[in-house]
Design a protein that fits this description.
The chain has eleven helices and 14 strands. It is of the alpha/beta class and 321 residues long. The structure holds adenosine-5'-triphosphate (ATP).
């Protein structure tokens, strides 16, 4: 049985603006989203801020009713079978809220285990296994207020898994976590997969999605614009090759003329300190470097390098084109 099915999900919000003259408007946050997640799969939902990822997740975890369309988790409808769905899913939202700082990690888990109705006899074994899974064994007696953000987030994940859900929704779990913490968190997410849990993950970190996800859907303005394995998405980048040129003080007009070169599909400028790095998506077999350099004329140029497209290249192209 498919773990998660979304069929033409839509959700709009009515908003009012202005204090004196109140104007009503409707935001279509999710506009016909469909996808399926197989059991045991780690599925990434990627998209810019406001693309509709959280709204989609909230519909799947029964916290928000769809305006239209349907969705099911493990064959159970998210509108008709709310209680049954909730019993089988876990969810973790990024950020710091939701733990008791004054309590130890262990007491937090005990408290939530009680709240989620985990059998008292089961609690100790379950909590022990979860501490192991999230790599926190040995730190469980310390108060949460002393935990790093990464540890808190792993404790959040342990909390979300207390009732042994089959499907877990992780909405930006690595937000605000330093690289070491983020690496540990990735290991935790990878071990969820190893134990057969189905995971839906949203993240703004492309290497994280590349490392963890079996398949990815890219969502933009409430619609899915691409779906596939990370490799398929990378291959789908129109170009096939990426040329990076470090420049100092490149005028916008010059950047535009680079886009006119035949083999160049797109040009983006990344500011890195003093540098402006031109990232050009080019045809795989093109010899465009000389043409690019001559168009740059007097502009001071640093390192020039070519590389294979990354998931981030594919993503940027998908959400900006
Ligand atoms: N309760 C609400 N009332 C009104 N508008 C909302 C509400 N919730 C979300 N929206 C709007 O719906 C759109 C999608 O929001 P959503 O939070 O799903 O995006 P997201 O992809 O999760 O973004 P982010 O990456 O910033 O978390 C946004 O335009 C947002 O302002």
């Amino acid at each position: 049985m498919t773990a998660v099915v979304a069929r033409d999900l839509r959700r709009s919000f009515r908003t009012t603006q202005g204090r004196l003259r109140r104007t009503r408007s409707e935001v279509e946050a999710v506009r016909g989203v469909s996808f399926e997640i197989a059991p045991g799969e780690t599925f990434g939902l990627l998209g810019p801020n406001g693309a509709g990822k959280t709204t989609t997740i909230k519909m799947l975890i029964t916290l928000l009713l769809p305006t239209s369309g349907s969705a099911s988790v493990l064959g159970m409808d998210v509108v008709a079978d709310v209680r049954a769905v909730r019993r089988r899913i876990g969810y973790v939202f990024g950020g710091d809220r939701g733990l008791y700082d004054r309590l130890s990690g262990l007491d937090n888990l005990r408290y939530f285990a009680e709240l989620y109705g985990v059998e008292p006899r089961e609690q100790q074994r379950r909590i022990g296994a979860l501490l192991e899974l999230v790599g926190m064994t040995g730190r469980e007696h310390e108060r949460v207020e002393g935990y790093s953000r990464g540890m808190r987030q792993r404790l959040h994940i342990a909390r979300g898994l207390l009732h042994d859900p089959d499907v877990v929704f992780l909405d930006e779990p690595s937000i605000g976590i330093d690289p070491v913490g983020a690496r540990e968190l990735r290991a935790t997410i990878a071990s969820l997969k190893e134990q057969g849990t189905t995971v839906l993950l949203t993240t703004h970190y492309m290497f994280e999605a590349d490392e963890l996800c079996d398949r990815i859907a890219v969502i933009r303005s409430g619609e899915i614009v691409a779906e596939g394995t990370p490799e398929q998405l990378k291959r789908g980048v129109a170009s096939g090759r990426v040329l990076e040129v470090e420049t100092y003080g490149v005028p916008a007009g010059v950047v535009e003329t680079l886009g006119d070169l035949g083999p160049v599909h797109s040009v983006a400028v990344e500011e890195r300190g003093q540098l402006q790095v031109l990232v050009l998506q080019c045809d795989a077999d093109s010899e465009v470097t000389q043409d690019v350099l001559s168009r740059l004329g007097d502009v001071r140029v640093g390192r020039v390098s070519a590389r294979e497209p990354t998931l981030e290249d594919a993503y940027v192209q998908l959400v900006t084109q």
